[in-house]
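Section 5.1 Outputs to date
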Amino acid sequence: MFSKVLAVFNRPPADSVAKNFPFLGSAWPVTILLLLYMLFVLNYGKKFMEHRQPYEIKKIVIVYNFFQVIYNGVMFGIMFYYFFIDRVYPLDCLATLPMDDPKKNIERVISYIYFINKIIDLLDTIFFVLRKSYKQITFLHVYHHAFMVFAIYWVVRFNGFGGQFFTMALANTFVHIVMYFYYMISAIYTGIKRSLWWKKYITKIQIIQFVSVSLHSVYILVFNPKCEFPVALHFLILAQCVIFITMFSNFYMKTYVKPQHQKQQ
């Protein structure tokens, strides 16, 4: 059994070029990174902070959020261009480009910088621990961050770069532009955090993101069943969208709807 697991971990990537990218040549770096992340944010980080005051890292957080706004903004602009203007993929079938396609390297680079951004996203939770903001370390938060890194790695390993997942990446980068801009403003102007009326709409946008991505996969499955993008991966997208829609909707109800309802009683 263990030998079979090792065989999967050492399996050559679907795209041989992937082995040249850091974190994509083997499953071990990503697996170890996520294990360390989980151990720190769920256990050892809290023990480390137990007898310490929250670290004053406001300036670091502001710079980090500004960096994320720029990073996601650049990614969104690039993907929007290749998605809707250059039309690298037909919208009714986003199959991974052939190895000899002249734009294959563009697909690889876009996919990789998005993957690296998901690793950078893990710093969100590290900052929560160092500031002792434990209430923000929810199951939804940790699952979402860890899953994105893990899933992207294995999709690239077994299917290659790009394809249908660009739909998710495009929507996700837009959401993150809005989200990190909110975090940046609320970190700079701490006193107005509660008055930023559009905070709840970030969660709504996140829900809309997963609904739109799932509908796109359903559209392709129904109206273009001959599309070469693997059906199993369409169902993976749909399953995760359902999970995220459920969790984000539950978060929205608990955070915004129920408190408002209780105030009115």
